[in-house]
Predict the 3D structure of the following.
Amino acid sequence: MIKFLDLHKINLQYEEAFQEKFKSFLDKGWYILGDNVKAFEKEFAAYCGTKHCIGVGNGLDALVLIFKAVIQHGKMQKGDEVIVPANTYIASILAILQADLVPVLVEPNEHTFNIDPNKIQQAITSKTKVILPVHLYGQLADMETINAIAKKNNLLVIEDAAQAHGAILPTSNSDLPTLKPGNLSYAAGFSFYPGKNLGALGDAGAITTNDDELAKIIFSLRNYGSETKYHNDFIGVNSRLDEIQASFLSVKLPYLDNENAIRRAIAKRYLSEIKNDKITLPFYDGSENHVFHLFVIRTEKRDDLQKYLSENGIQTMIHYPIPPHKQKALPQFHHLSFPITEKMHDEVLSLPISPVLTQEEIDFVVKMVNQWT
Ligand SMILES: *Cc1c(COP(=O)(O)O)cnc(C)c1O
């Protein structure tokens, strides 16, 4: 059986280092917001090339806290609109709602699966304050165009980078620093959910930004709105990055680029070796702007293909079977129609693409997909 994602095998690679971290954690006896969180925040900010990183409880909270901080910062207010792709994971939309803001859904580009910049302009109203591109499946959204639209319309750009740790915006100017999420917009939210490209051994998340004041507000908001113990400046939440998770993330971060490179290499194999008329392969420009969190193919007979692969020992997943505007939890969007998004959700299938797949397993996936009729 080829697992869709063998997390056990991924984490086993780092077992010894985890054991050491756990032992020193236990010896030290400091459990909340200690040296491990500080160290990881510094390392992840350096990795992204941003001035600040704030560790939080999970990826959803990372986005919620960015929005709450932007409101606190006076750059938007409750009831303002946020433009977001209609085909995102529901967390992007829940974050907007939890901050008392209004999500405005926009269709994706059919090839990249990312928000279609050509459809953003028509969604802008006098209430629009933010564009929230989601780097879906690990591929950067068209940030240059999105940032240009934002600039023209005086909007902020905030990235949902939960699936795109380490993706780099290609630039023809070699003098520029490498541009990663958090350095491509006002702020970015990351998730370190175990299945993400940089995954903790539990829940964890972070925010990256270059804005000193925003960072200061978020540091406070994640810890009850308090900078000095028992002095509360804001109505904050409890969403702190856990010490032990931070220490595990510090172990894995140095290997992230290598793991992303392995994912890209697998993707390149799939893209050149999968040949089946019934299947559409994902768009990839060959650059480092894609970290292949997921390798998503499309076919009209998606459910048939999934069943066939499962019968042949290959586990696949669907990201995602139901678009947010069709979810029971979001009746306010049920009247809307997004044909591209809806078709996508009927057709997408994610093949295994974890950095611990063997060449033989990749061979087998290719062979079985090619033999499907
Ligand atoms: C995983 C994910 C989130 C939420 O992250 P959690 O850590 O699970 O809260 C948000 N947005 C996207 C696009 C995600 O894939």
